[in-house]
Design a protein that fits this description.
single chain, alpha+beta, six-stranded mixed sheet, 25% helix, binds tetrahydrodeoxyuridine
């Protein structure tokens, strides 16, 4: 894993992080107040974004990462996903006057197990997906989803 900052990212990665940050605006986080955005760079150059969508029947909601990868595959079936950037913010525990910018997590959040599994299966189909986890103070770059989910369940 590489630990870096937003300012040190390549223009492509920085743009993808910006898309993930913008995607948080499309989150529906009525229950948790935790807004997550994901942006996937496809092999055809397109960027597909997703955001968490919550529901009163909690488990019916979905995370930003799955909303993005399922939409990406439904929109461009068979096209490899090359990178995913993830960003999150919340107003919980923040002073009322805090700006939107300040509400982003200072340290990256990391995808939940279910999202790792979902992303991994696209990785197995099409090749490595680089994972860029955004935080205001630090950014983590992982070479693949596999690196986040070793010894995964893949066959039966
Ligand atoms: N969530 C994501 O969208 N992605 C993650 O990586 C972690 C959690 C969402 C699920 C739920 O809507 C909210 O964040 C609080 O857990």
């Amino acid at each position: 894993m590489v630990q870096t900052t937003i300012d040190e990212l390549s223009p492509t990665d920085r743009h993808l992080v910006e898309e993930a940050r913008e995607a948080t605006r499309r989150s529906l986080a009525s229950y948790s107040g935790f807004h997550v955005g994901a942006a996937i760079l496809m092999d055809n150059g397109e960027i597909i974004t997703g955001a968490n969508q919550e529901n009163a029947a909690y488990s019916s909601g979905t995370c930003a990462e799955r909303s993005a990868c399922f939409y990406a595959s439904a929109r461009y079936p068979g096209v490899p996903m090359r990178k995913i950037a993830i960003a999150a913010w919340t107003r919980l525990h923040m002073p009322e006057e805090a700006s939107w910018e300040e509400c982003f997590q200072s340290h990256p959040i990391s995808p939940c197990g279910a999202c790792r599994q979902a992303l991994l299966e696209y990785e197995h189909l099409y090749g490595p997906i680089e994972v860029i986890l955004y935080g205001r103070d630090r950014v983590y770059i992982l070479p693949s989803v596999e690196s986040l989910l070793p010894l995964s369940f893949t066959e039966f």
